[in-house]
Design brief:
single chain; 792 residues; alpha/beta; 5-stranded mixed sheet; 5-stranded parallel sheet; elongated
Amino acid sequence: MKSITFRWKLTLFVVLICGVSLSLAFAGLYIYDRLQISQEVQHNQELQRNLENSSKLLVQSLSRVLEQNPNTTDLPLNLVAPNSQVAAAAVFTTEGRLLSQFIRPGTRESIPGLQRFSNLMSTERGVVISPIRSTVDGRSLGTLYLKADLTQADNERSSTLLKGSAIIFLAAVLLAFVVAYRLQALVTQPIIELARVSANIQRETDYSYRVGAAATGEIGELIHSFNAMLDTIQSNTSELQRAKVVAEEARERIHQSNEKLEEANRTLEGRVEDRTRLLAKAVDDAEEASKAKSTFLAKMSHELRTPLNAIIGYSEMLQEDARDEGATRTADDLDKVLNAARHLLGLINDVLDISKIEAGKMDLFLETFPLSKIISDVATTISPLIDKKGNKLVLDFPANIGTMHADATKLRQMLLNLLSNASKFTENGTVTLRATRITGIGNDIIELAVVDTGIGMTPIQLSRLFQAFSQADASTSSKYGGTGLGLAISKQFAQMMKGDITVSSIAGTGSTFLIRLPANVQSEQPKVIQTSDKLTRSPFPTEENARILLIEDDKEIRQVLSNLLSENGYSPIEADSGQHGLELAALRLPSLIVLDVSLAGLDGWTVLTKLQDDPKLTDIPVIILGSVSDTDMALSLGATTIVNKPVDAARLTAEIAMLITPLGHNHVLVVEDDADSRTLIARTLERENWPYRAVASGKAALRTLQQSTPAMILLDLKMAGMNGFELLERVQKNPDWAKIPVVIISSMDITHETRTNLTPRALAILRKGEFSRDELANLIRPAMESSQLAKK
């Protein structure tokens, strides 16, 4: 029974009840019918005896009358009137002629002919036919016909049958109800219990209730799932209550912070003046520091490497002399000097390398070489360091691994860095260098794996592994030494050759560093420019070409950028230093400035600051060429946007065209510091053919607003420098800008209080990644249509 489904249980339940009811009714009716037949036989026998007795008495009376006159019609048939069971009586002559008849009033009886009756009705129930004979000689005088009234008997019988059937039916229904009541508990009781618990939960919102009824099959599974769901809801409710308490506490802290913020805002002007003075001093200090850094890096190679090379050279000579003279102790001391000098030289080389990479001035020297030779050379060089820790170096690569076209020096340095790290963090273990060539379409892939059995790393340590001047943690640096530059430089080298370095590690087990490089590294010209077919031409095809000032001290890069701009309809103005760029900007007043931050002498940050401080130049949009780490500084100092190195030519030309396109009153102003987000919004606007201006900072947005009033502003809240809240405050205070509809697009977790403050000042608040392009377009469209109508 437990394995039967709920559907079949109900089916069997209904069939069982119906079967019991019908069986009981059939049995009762059968028994009752048998009893009724017996009673009917007795009744008929009594009726027949009554008629026969009445017939005998009446025959005696009739025989005396007919003996006197056989043809008389005055016969005493009314003698049967007192007998209520007699419905009709008749006397027939011996020839079959009717002499006399009696029919009880109220009945519908008729007297049939004697011949027909004698042939067909002599055996009918309730009919007696008696011959009338003479008492003297016994001759036949006629025939007497008596018929009983069966209506009352039949009615009584029908009534008794109906009563009996009703009693039997009620008894069957009662018994079926008892059976059903007992059986339904197996099916309906768990459901009733489930409904009761659900009603209690809905009424009291108390999720501690549980369904206690036991059941099998689908109902049992339903009850089990319902109880499990209540467990989950109760647990989540408890967590929600705790979260509400935490939220209330956080809200109270925010309220207190807002009060402090309001108090701070009251003294904001004074603090702004103080910070302005501090910022001006910081800018001067940064300018001096930048000059010192540039000077230091320029002289680093000569001033440090030259004496270090002399120290290394003379130490090697003195060590050889000491060994020749047998002065072992002196030779050992000189060996320590040599190791220290070589270590210092390695540190200097690392610092210079990372500086060159960040400045985009690191070159690749591509050549074709046997990969097996590089691996063998690296193994020979690193073997003393491997042996020093009691480790074993294992080389695993096929003899026919072939050649590679890449920067052999940088590849060798990458392998030495990884093997050195593996040996440093492994003692009495194994360090394996495995090389594999993966055949691809057009270009093979070289995989170089360095596997060690050392201390391994945790996920937290892995997250900051490739950061410059950073190691896994402080304890690692103090115990094993090192600057943390080796892995950062190796990863940069791999990315320069269109590859990468990845790592997998288990704490206490070991680590695996994997270098993936194309077997044939392609040379890129220029060094920091990515060319593209999707370039954007100048928006002034028929007018005088717009002047673009290029401030770049690398002649080759400057020339490539200049050619790129010329080919796309611009007039480039070249400046080979920061000071030269400032002079040309004041003299030529260009439409836009492209500024490299890593300039020798007067660096890019100082140039940007001076441009912003000059009232004649402050409105000129500036595009910074730098790295991701330069973004916050660039936007804080007033740059319009930043293009990361290596420079994407398609993006650079698109930014220039967009920033110098004349603005009308029916454009959309996009204020967003994230380049990818700007691109997504721009594609939505371009799909609708709506003009727009995209800037990356609040300061750049204010300059754009001063040039022309847009139809709508799409604003990010979290930006470097002037954030979205500050910009919105400035917009609201300006009567000409206060009516511009603003749509806020942000990834911040906006609190209820913040949303309440922003709602009166914003048309809508959208969360990044949670709205579609059509939703954004539907918000912008009314503003654009209104602006176009106003223009007409």
